[in-house]
Amino acid sequence: MLRGTPFHRRTSAICESQNWRRWAGCLVAGSYELTHEREYYAIRSSAALIDVSPLHKYLVEGKDAARLLDHLVTRDVSKCRVGQVMYTPWCNEDGKMIDDGTLSRLDDNTFRLTSADPNYRRLVDHSIGLRDVRITDVSDSLAALALQGPLSRAVLEKAFEIDLSGLKYFRLTPAKGRGIPVTISRTGYTGDLGYEIWVDAGQAEALWDLLIDCGLDYGITPAGILALDLARVEAGLILIEVDYVSVERAMIEAQTSTPLELGLGWTVSLDKRANFTGKKALRAEAERGPAWQLVGLEVDWDSLERLYLEVALPPLVLGDVAADAERLTFAQRAKHDLAVATVRQGALEAAALRGEDERHALIDGQHLAVDDRDVARSLPGQQNFLAPHAGRHRTDTEEVLCRLVDVNDPAVGIEQGDAVRHAIAHGFHQALQGGDLFARLPKLGLQHGGAGDVRGFVARTIASV
C-alpha cells in the first residue's frame, strides 16, 4: 500500500496537477503544476524545495561501525571525518553494483547511510562477528528536504540564523530554527548550489512551514521529482534502475554494471586496507580496463526521429551504444536533447581512428555528440551539459574546481572555474586549444597535454577536499 511522506499534508494541499509518482513505497509529487518547467527553473535560478524523504536511511552506531561499513562500501571510510559526507557505491563479489548512496559521519562512532533500495538485511549480515555495532532503520522516523538553487543558502541562513558560507561541499552541520533541530548537509542531486535538511519526522511539517515562510522573498518554489530528474541528467548524476540496474534485480549478466563502467572509478579505493566486497574483481577490472563506459549524448532530434519511424519502436541498441528512451530528455537550459547511454569501450577510439572529432561517434550512420564523462563522473554535482553564462552564482562544482586556484582572489577563481567548466562541457581537446585557457594552465598546475591533464587536476582537487 502506498503511503505519504511526513510532508504529505503540505505537498498534497498544493499539488494542482495531482501528478504523483511512486518512490520506495511512498507517494511524491511528480510536478505540482501541470508542467514541471517553472519548478526546474527554480532549481537553476532561485530555490527549489524537494521532498526526498523516501530515501532509505540507516544509522550505524558503535565502535565497530566504521569497520562494518569499510567492508561493505568501496570508499575508504577511515578517511571520512566527523561532519563529512561521502558518496559511495557497494557491490557484490563480482564487483557489480548493488546500490549507491551517501555516507555521513555524525560523530566518531555514528554514521548515517542512505540508499535507493532497502539494505537493512545486508548491513546486518555484514555485522556478524562484530561485537560493538548497532543498526537502526530510520527511514520512517527521519524526514528530508532538498533545497536546491543559487538562493538556497540565503534561505537557510535566514531560517536558521546561521552562517553557511564556510560549510564545504559534502559537509554537514547541526542547526536549529523556531526550536526545530535539524542537520544541514551541503549535498544534492542537481549540480547546483544546494543543501539537504534532515529532521525528525514529527517536526517535518513545521520545517516545511519555516522554509516556505523564510523563502518567499527569494522565490522559493516546491518542486517535484520530474524537475529533479531533468536537473540530475544535466549534472551527469546517475540513477539506479535508469542508468544502471542493480545486480540484485538484473535478469541477465548483460544488465549489470561495475563502478568503473559507470565512471565511478574515483569512488573505488583499491588501496584501502579493508577487504571490501568485490575488491578482487574490481582490481582485476582496473588493470584490464572496463568493457563499457557511461557517456552523455547530445542528440540530434531529427535523425533520432527518423530511426524511430523506420522501425516504429524506440531503439534499444544503436551500434556500439546501448541506450533506452528513459534516459532521453530535453534540457531546458542547454536547449537540446540529452541522453545517457552505455558505450562499448573502444567505440570512441574507433571514431578517432576514422578521423572524427573525439567528442563524436558515428553510430549506425547517425552523428551523435558524445561528451567525455571521465571528469563528469569524477565529481558529484558536475554540470556536464551546462554552458557557462555571465552573472550567475558560483556552483559547488566550480568551488571545488577552484581550490587549486588563488582562493584569495574570488574574481580569478570564478573566471578560472568558468574556463575549466567550459573545457569539461564542450570537449577537452577543443577547449584546450583555446588561447585563453592555455594561458591559464600554469595557474592550474597543468600542462597543455589534453584530457589526461584535466583528469589529473580534478583528481588532485578531489584528494584535497
Task: Describe the protein.
Mean pLDDT is 78; it is low at 315-319, 322-326 and 351-465. The protein is built from 15 helices and 21 strands. Among the domains are: 3-53 and 140-231, Gyrase A, domain 2; 56-137, Alpha-Beta Plaits, CATH 3.30.70.1400; 387-464, no CATH class. The protein starts with a strand and ends with a helix. The protein is an alpha+beta fold and 465 residues long. The longest helix has 17 residues, at 410-426. Strands 15, 16, 17, 18, 19, 20 and 21 form a 7-stranded antiparallel sheet that branches. Helices cover 31% and strands 25% of the residues.
Explain the layout of strands and helices.
Layout: E1 3-4, H1 8-14, E2 19-23, E3 26-31, H2 37-45, E4 47-51, E5 56-61, H3 65-72, E6 85-91, E7 97-107, E8 110-115, H4 120-127, E9 134-137, E10 142-148, H5 152-160, E11 172-177, E12 180-185, E13 194-200, H6 204-215, E14 220-222, H7 225-235, H8 279-288, E15 292-299, H9 301-311, E16 317-318, E17 321-322, E18 329-331, E19 336-344, H10 347-353, E20 360-363, E21 366-371, H11 396-401, H12 410-426, H13 428-432, H14 435-444, H15 451-464
Parallel strand pairs: 1-3, 4-14
Antiparallel strand pairs: 2-3, 4-10, 5-8, 5-9, 6-7, 7-8, 10-13, 11-12, 12-13, 15-19, 15-21, 16-17, 17-19, 18-19, 20-21
